[in-house]
Amino acid sequence: MPAAQERLYQWSGQVFETLDGLAHIGPDPEGAANVYIATGDSGMGMTHSTIAAMMLSAQICDGESEWSQLYDPRRKPLKASGEFLRENANVAAQYADWLRPGEVGSIDEVAPGSGAILRSGLHRVAVYREESGEIHACSAACPHLLGSVTWNHLEKTWDCPCHGSRFDRLGEVIAGPARSGLRVLDPRTLR
């Protein structure tokens, strides 16, 4: 298209799927007082936001909603147990990354504007090189459950294939379940 110019911005997001396709709307499943959640929209955030507003206001004011049981975040759908087992077997397979070599042998091999995994002894290190050449290094261990992150060259993010946590190029958390960023390392120790 001749009128198209340089792309300056882009958007991305994740679609969180629950085992049974229904959102999780209700009190915090961990039991925190006065904390309610609405997540797992499976791409139906507009619909679920209306449902969540109705349900959560009823739960806060009246202690119950007519849909509380259906959307209960603590529910365990029996019909989905096979999928649950398959998904968790996939997660277990992701931990095999800790046994694999790095993608590069040294930080000198990381191209400007990109990231790669480097092995440093028993550790995997997430290394990013700025266009200017400045190097940033973080532990490749996702703080959620210690899966090994991978470089997403399209988004310029570190993504954990185990549970979907995402981190910016410098290791700051973008999307959970991780609640904190990757542990920052001194890149000078990797030379």
UniProtKB/TrEMBL annotation:
Question: Per its record, how is this protein called by name?
Answer: Rieske 2Fe-2S domain-containing protein
Question: Which superkingdom is the protein from?
Answer: Bacteria
InterPro entries for the chain = FAD/NAD-bd_sf (IPR036188), Rieske_2Fe-2S (IPR017941), Rieske_2Fe-2S_sf (IPR036922), Rieske_Fe-S_prot (IPR014349)
Protein keywords: 2Fe-2S, Disulfide bond, Iron, Iron-sulfur, Metal-binding
Q: Which organism is it from?
A: Nannocystis pusilla
Q: Does Protein transport count among this protein's keywords?
A: no
Q: Which residues form the Rieske domain?
A: 102-191
Q: Name one GO molecular function term.
A: 2 iron, 2 sulfur cluster binding
Keyword Metal-binding belongs to the record: yes
> Per its UniProt record, what PROSITE patterns does this chain match?
RIESKE
UniProt xrefs under SUPFAM superfamilies: ISP domain
